[in-house]
Predict the 3D structure of the following.
Amino acid sequence: MEHKELFIYNSFTRSKEKFTPIDPDRIGMYVCGPTVYSDVHLGNCRTFISFDIIYRYLMHLGYKVRYVRNITDVGHLENDVDTGGEDKVAKKARLEQLEPMEIVQRYTNGFHDVLKQFNTLNPSIEPTATGHIIEQIEMVQQILDNGFAYEKNGSVYFDTQKLNATSDIYGTLSGKVQDDLLTETRDDLKNQSEKNHPSDFAIWVKAEPKHIMKWESPWSLGFPGWHLECSAMSTKYLGKTFDIHGGGMDLQFPHHENEIAQNMGACNCAPVNYWMHANMLLMNGRKMSKSPDPITGLSNSISPEELFEGTSPHMSKPYSPMIVRFFMLQTHYHSTLDLSDKALLAAEKGYHRLMDANRVLTDLAYGGNDQSSEEDVEINKLLDQAYEDMSNDFNCPQALSRLFMVATKINAIKNGQLDFNLVSRTTWERMQTTFHNFIFEIFGLKDDSHGGGNGANGEVLDGLMKLLIDIRQDVRAKKDFETSDKIRDTLKELNVILKDGKDGTDWSIG
Ligand code: AMP
Ligand code: ZN
């Protein structure tokens, strides 16, 4: 099958490149998932929503995509040191007096629940680090056998100097030169002395006696280094070299840089053809993060629930998951995005405008005389451009702006300001399918503008409301105002507002 030409910004080469998958019809995509030791914040969600849209668009182009997104349930140590610190999952288990597996399960469930509310698709495979200890041990062995690692007191370190002697790949992704690599490899001093070179990093860590998550290996009772799981699991499910690797921009260094090093050490090949990095969600101009600010001591994060329920002190009101998702679509994944009440209020308006236009498209019967005109040409051009925008490094905001231009025309037709005869039936039908495809399949939005919620429930609610509105219309025609008022007042008590207009009665929540 012929696939539409697609261009992707490759962080590795720092340039936009024509996308050519290894297999013409299949794509392998790996995205670093969460470390499940606490609830996800909205910043984490932005990265996963960005890759959800990328996944959806690749499938929309007709590719079969194997999307692997891991769960980090061991090996990610406090303060991002690579040895000596306490495992984040184990620490939480200790503090809450729970089993580590209980912590992992709780926050994995929470992560899934949140992503479901945002209507993100499940990945094809969601492997866990603890489920792939054997593969990780095998990879450590391969790296050792190839001479790119050394053992010290039961821990195994990657030998960055050996890699540098054979290739100049280390540092390319993050654009760091050797001196930066040295100073930015944050490490505890204790294990620093075991390393041949400060930029070396642990791929297997000998566990202290108090450490609870540990496994037998040829070197020690220990656990894998954090970066290793992604190398081992991407190789297992996608092959030694695969198409796309994604994650948040903050993972470029050291995580992704070290992944590349490990794959080079294990198989002497670069693992990824296109590295993609989603930019950070900011709040008050700073990266959203759970870690407390060094000066104020306050964390700079907001949870999805706080937004949905309107309990955040930063927000004037609740915002539904679809409004938040829409808000994220309005900025390109490669740019930072600042969260604010004002921006969400604007997104709410935009979301409703888009959904309203789509509803007109679905509900309004074609009312033209099937002639072509300049309007046709213009509308078709906008629809083509929306696809070109998506194929130009997934430029959602640009595609969205084209749809809004078409939405203006749809509203003008509805209000009689634009003659329906200027739009052919073919164009009208193309508008219907393109809007549907973009809004629901590519952007992954749902129409909750009636507060009707999701899928089947939303349809039931819409159906019930239509029935009530019809009954109210009937009783008013019979001058039974008592019943019609009862319907309106009872709905009002339920926070459902009826709005009578010249095109009939519409309803909304709140
Ligand atoms: P973590 O659980 O900390 O490993 O993070 C999970 C994912 O969320 C990673 O891909 C991070 O890059 C991403 N992430 C963390 N903070 C933010 C943020 N403020 N904005 C966007 N993505 C983020
Ligand atoms: Zn990873």
